[in-house]
Amino acid sequence: MKGTTTLELPRRAGSAGLARLIVTAHGSSLASEQLKNANVMVSELVSNAFQHGEGQICLTVESGPDGMWAEVSDEGCQPVIASPEPRPERGGWGLHFVERLADSWGVEAGEARVWFRLTSPSP
User: What does the domain layout of the chain look like in residue ranges?
Assistant: First the structure.
């Protein structure tokens, strides 16, 4: 699948599974390992939104021949989303995974919105 999908996810524990289905559908231009990484990252971001956020959880995934971009947001207004440094002793590894696995990623300032990008491998 190529193009853009935006989906409002239910605020429940199983929402990460729905997000993985969407990411997998958009992952045709990614290498196998990248697609696995994309599923880990989207699971972590949706789980974070469920556990720490507020209101509706929204997933947007864009894909094309150059790769995939995904964003997870909720209606919370976190002034700061925790940085992945320093490494936590227990729990809280989601953004560490995103930082290590994504080609690029970011947080929208003043919003509960995190995105990541994976670039398709060169032919």
Answer: 3-119
